[in-house]
Design goal:
The chain is α+β, with helices and mostly antiparallel strands and 555 residues long. It contains 22 helices and 11 strands. The protein has a 5-stranded mixed sheet. A 4-stranded antiparallel sheet has the order 1-6-5-4, covered by helices on one side. Strands 2-3 form a two-stranded antiparallel sheet. Residues 429-456 have low confidence and may be disordered.
């Protein structure tokens, strides 16, 4: 009965999520009139520094309040899902879809992919919104594709030279081989070195999570041929309208905002509690990131279905005329830059290094903190404005940002931008500064290894007061303690092996991190393994949730 009641909630929640997205992506002009078009970001990248810009102050509060309301509504309507069950089910569905499309054809393969929405219902809105974030680019691609086809049909009609690109097994093998080689190049050229086991894990998981997309797409398009002249001309036209600003002017005429805005709103929705395990968590399942974790559109496996349709159906309906969006030269270049943007750049590596596209680790830090840096590294101002920047973030791309109230206008903010110079924009390795927004909190992990260094004895009989908890912020202070659901856990030993780094745990040491723990979502196995880390009961709190089960268990 409970499952049926939740199932009846999904259509209403789909509409609420879509309503939030389409309502707010069109309101960013209230921050600054040149923000929707992207001209503000371009201006800040090229303006002589120091510079100052004025922003509207009230929109941040309205957006965050509406976001929190939607978050609360979804959390009330749905129970916390088992993220690992969803992941395993949807990986199995994708594997079956890959097999189906190659064995039985594109129709069966695309239909098989619909099963993901049964296993993860909220991935329906996630994949739909993911399409809309870049839909304008896709539509422009096909429009220019048609133009290039008509031009080539007229100008090359009598030419004996015919260059065709066929999707056959040679192309498929070459495509995946080159992509894998580029990932290795970016890792060894630009990224921090990891131990072999950790790197292999990211290669295996990341490859399945990101490249089975192409297994399905190439399976659907297998046997089709495309005119290479059309591909090259359409790619050149796409680059031209982007460089001349014509593309953005077209979008402005349609009232559609720039990518930096649509991506930020979509990304925050993707990280919303209850929504996150259904789709975007697959992009974050492993802590931190490598080039192997970079999807061509920066998404997780469960956010790809509508993009698969956008890549395949137009080409299948108009064979020989249209070619898929991912083969456009500008898209291939974006895929290349995304590999560098999803790598944790090593010390001493900067933008002059081939393969480096995020020297400040703006997006890599998002993969560590999870609940921060939702926007693009090219527009850090958005995260700073909404209070969702990583703790300690001062800027990116060689520019430092300082936001303060406008003394002459209470409804405005002033942003002061200066040249970073020798000052690094990277977040310090150790950070224990508090943050003002609950949305920016990273995962607070529990140990899956060994036992804690907590004092011996039955934790049920021990009461930890707030003062003692607050003092336990490091091993030197007697332990790294965190409170969850009315109980106190010692994470001292775990911080040394935490995949996201010790600083993530240190940020919450000595505090009650229940809200963040719940918002991220943890498996039942993770909660069960937390038992060996228990220290005692937090004074003045009644244990609840999974801690209640620990209370009832035998000592």
């Amino acid at each position: 009965m409970l499952l049926f009641a939740e199932a009846m909630e999904y259509p209403r929640l789909w509409l609420r999520i879509l309503g939030f997205y389409f309502s707010f992506v069109r309101k960013f002009g209230r921050i600054h009139p040149d923000m929707p078009s992207g001209r503000l970001f371009s201006h800040l990248d090229s303006v002589k520094l120091p510079a100052e810009v004025k922003l509207g102050a009230d929109f941040a509060q309205e957006f965050n309040a509406a976001y929190d309301q939607l978050k609360s509504e979804i959390s009330t309507a749905l129970r916390e899902p088992n993220a690992e069950s969803i992941l395993i089910s949807c990986f199995a569905i994708r594997a079956a879809q890959c097999a189906a499309v190659w064995a039985f054809g594109w129709q069966v393969g695309l239909l098989a992919g619909l099963l993901q929405f049964v296993a993860a219902p909220l991935s329906l809105t996630g994949s739909f919104i993911r399409l809309f974030t870049n839909l304008s680019d896709c539509l422009i691609h096909y429009a220019l594709n048609i133009s290039a086809f008509l031009i080539c049909s007229v100008m090359l009609a009598s030419s004996p030279l015919q260059l065709r690109l066929r999707i056959d097994m040679v192309f498929v093998i070459a495509f995946f081989t080159i992509d894998f080689a580029l990932n290795l190049f970016v890792y060894f050229r630009t990224a921090e070195s990891w131990n072999t086991a950790r790197l292999v894990k990211h290669i295996a998981y990341g490859t399945f999570n990101t490249k089975t997309y192409f297994v399905v797409v190439l399976g659907c398009l297998y046997g089709l041929e495309f005119d290479l002249f059309v591909v090259v001309l359409a790619s050149c036209l796409t680059k031209c309208i982007s460089m001349t600003g014509l593309q953005q002017r077209l979008l402005n005429m349609c009232g559609w905002p720039c990518f930096a805005i649509t991506f930020y709103v979509e990304h925050r929705i993707g990280h919303m509690p209850r929504v996150y395990p259904h789709a975007h968590k697959m992009h974050h399942y492993l802590h931190d990131t490598t080039a192997f974790d970079a999807h061509i559109y920066g998404s997780g496996l469960n956010e790809e279905y509508f993009w698969i349709l956008a890549e395949t159906l137009p080409c299948l309906l108009c064979p020989g005329m249209l070619f898929p969006y991912f083969l456009n030269g500008t898209t291939l270049y974006s895929s290349w830059t995304n590999k560098g943007a999803h790598s944790r750049t090593a010390d001493g590596v900067d933008l002059s290094t081939t393969g480096c596209f995020d020297e400040d680790n703006f997006h890599a830090d998002h993969h560590t903190w999870h609940r921060a840096n939702f926007g693009s590294s090219t527009a850090p101002l958005i995260d700073l404005y909404f209070g969702t920047a990583c703790p300690g973030l001062k800027g990116a791309n060689g520019r430092l940002y300082a936001i303060h109230s406008d003394n002459q206008d209470s409804n405005s903010l002033r942003v002061h931008i200066t040249e970073a110079g020798s000052t690094s924009c990277r977040i310090p390795h150790e950070s224990d500064s508090p943050h003002k927004s609950s949305d920016v909190h990273p995962v607070v992990a529990v140990d899956h290894e060994g036992s804690s260094g907590a004092e011996a004895g039955d934790w049920r009989s021990r009461v930890v007061n707030l003062k003692e908890l607050q003092e336990k912020r490091s091993v030197d202070a007697g332990g790294l303690w965190v409170a969850l659901h009315g109980a106190v856990f010692d994470l001292s030993a775990f911080q040394r092996i935490h995949p996201g780094g010790a600083q993530v745990l240190q940020m919450y040491a000595g505090t009650d991190a229940t809200k963040t723990f719940d918002e991220i979502g943890h498996s039942e196995k993770a909660k069960l393994m937390a038992k060996k880390r228990l220290v005692g009961i937090l004074e003045g709190h009644q244990p609840d949730d999974f801690v209640v089960d620990f209370m009832a268990a035998e000592p």
